[in-house]
Amino acid sequence: MKRKQLIGAAFLALTAVACRRDAEQEPARPTPPANEVWITERQMTEAGIATTEVSERALGKALTTTGRVTFSDLRVAHVFSPVTGRVTNLFAGLGQSVKRGDPLGVIESPDVGSAVSDLAKGEADLAAAQRDYERQRELYQAHAAAQRDFEAAEATYRKAKAERDRAAEKARLFSPSGSSRSAQQYLLRSPIDGQVVARAVSPGMEVQGQYSGGTSTELFTVGNLDTVWMIADVFEIDLSRVQIGAPVTISVVAFPDRQFTGTVDWISGALDPTTRTAKVRCTINNRSHALRPEMFATVAITTDTKQELAIPRSAVVRLGDSMFAYVDHGNSSDGQRRFERRVIAVDETEAGNYVPVLRGLAPGEKVVSSGAIILSGNAT
Predict the structure, then answer these.
(1) For the purposes of burial, counting CB atoms within 10 Å of the CB of 237, is it exposed (0-12), middle (13-18) or buried (19 or more)?
(2) Fewest CB within 10 angstroms: 53, 72, 249, 335, which?
(3) What angle do CA 41, 375, 338 make, to 5 degrees?
(4) Calpha distance 52→43 (Å, rounded)
């Protein structure tokens, strides 16, 4: 028994010596300085850390006003019925996405049948007038008919041809691309790609046609929200400060933590006599469809722009009275990414998502623009 205990003790001693040797042979990992944070590429990806180069950008002061979101007039379609009749079927509901040419509804209308009948009658009259014209021409050329009869036949032929063309155009208008299912049905189609944002019709409703002389009702509104307009009101005293191409930052109460950006692309040539303001329009990229028409917004128009060294506002981290940013210094000797915490000074009074750098950063350096708060939590 004692022999087994001695053998076990010897084995433990040898194991301890071997572990000590391995520990002595393994090189020590470098330790980051007190003002740096080192993380792996995987940690950067998981934390969503991104960098932006420090460079000169067009910055300026902000002119704050109010505005509202509207459709771009080239990206909205108001759909009316060209024929009078009764709605028998609907294919598109509110909020449904449609493509150009997609069916919206079916209208049972005698106008369509009348157009088809007029076309058939016009073709028959044209065929008869053409035969009479050709016969009178042959007789006239053979000196067997009077010139008056030949000219009358020619005039009748031309009138029949004009009437047939008119009937064909009307039939084509009432039945575009073979839209009618029968001689009495008109298929209402979407003229653009977009979403059905309004529908004022239901099955069984009688609708008035645009070409019937009455008052026609808008049946569908199809709008494309990928790009919208922001119409802002600028007072007369501030109008000279606003220029075409000026950056615009927009916020709405529905999304208080988000900002939308665009540029001024139109300034009204006249003032509203009541409010003494001019309309200013900017185009907003709205791929997320977060902005909806008729939303009210706070609009900050950048004025008096000039080129300044700037960084994203999200890159600035405040700790007490100090402001600092994390500067990317590339990889360390063990492959980790090095970020230096550097004290900086910026002018936070400037409008927009970028702030001018007063000191602490040089052009070409890279700073953390997303995830700086996460790095500050790992700082030593």
Answers:
(1) exposed
(2) 335
(3) 50
(4) 18
Q: What is the pLDDT of residues 292-335, one digit of tens each?
A: 999 999 998 888 777 889 999 889 998 888 899 999 988 877 77
Which residues, in sequence order, are CB contacts of 196 under 8 Å at separation 6+?
A: 92, 93, 94, 95, 96, 98, 104, 220, 221, 222
Cα–Cα distance, 104 to 196 (Å, whole number) = 9
Q: Which residues contact 210 (CB under 8 A, 6 or more apart)?
A: 80, 81, 82, 216
Number of helices (H), then strands (E), belonging to the chain: the values are 5, 21
Asked if residues 352 and 361 have their Cβ atoms less than 8 Å apart, the reply is: no
State both tokens at 109.
């209308």
Q: Which residues is 252 bridged to in the sheet?
A: 255, 297
Instruction: Tell me if 331 sits within 8 A of 41, measured CB to CB.
Output: no
**pLDDT one-digit tens code per residue, 125-144:** 999 999 998 998 888 888 88
Q: What domains can you pick out in the chain, each with its CATH number?
A: 36-57+308-378 (2.40.420.20), 62-73+224-305 (2.40.30.170), 78-109+193-222 (2.40.50.100), 112-183 (1.10.287)
